[in-house]
Write a structure and sequence with these properties.
The structure is a single chain. By secondary structure, the chain is an all-alpha fold. It has a domain of about 70 residues. About 35% of the residues lie in helices and about 0% in strands. The chain contains 5 helices and no strands. Helix 2 packs across helix 3. The longest helix is centred in the N-terminal third of the chain and has 14 residues. It is elongated, with a radius of gyration of 23 Å.
């Protein structure tokens, strides 16, 4: 799924102006972002025809923080160019480190609750599972 030059002209006003000597056009960056969204590949797995993966990732990160990506995908959906809505969040276990206590390992000392609830105090957190609304 790639955007043509004519389709890009419809959403070009949503993207920031390119200043200075840039190596990648906004159209190339947007097509690379759509490639990653469609194929689910890693940034390093982008084909060489899109350019340097780190440049594309940096620009996408900057655009998402400033709200540009939201405006671009909204325009693409209104123009019926892209008919997907990206809402998935994926976390890789290599990027999130868990303390050994969070892995379910046995503790060295067992907590001994007191006889009265007042001495223990209120619970520090309450976890309630929530069902997500079905689309």
């Amino acid at each position: 799924m790639e955007i043509t030059q004519a389709q890009f002209a419809q959403i070009e006003h949503c993207l920031p102006l390119q200043r200075g000597n840039v190596s990648l056009s906004n159209l190339n960056v947007l097509n690379a972002i759509l490639y990653v969204a469609e194929h689910g590949c890693k940034w390093r797995g982008l084909p060489k025809r899109f350019g340097n993966w780190h440049t594309i990732y940096t620009r996408m990160n900057r655009w998402s923080k400033s709200g540009v990506m939201d405006r671009v995908f909204e325009e693409l959906q209104q123009a019926q160019v892209v008919r997907i809505k990206i809402e998935a969040v994926s976390l890789d276990s290599t990027s999130i480190k868990v303390h050994p206590d969070g892995t379910g390992a046995l503790k060295k000392t067992a907590r001994k609750p007191s006889a009265s609830l007042e001495a223990d105090g209120t619970p520090r957190f309450i976890w309630l599972p929530r069902m997500l609304a079905r689309p």
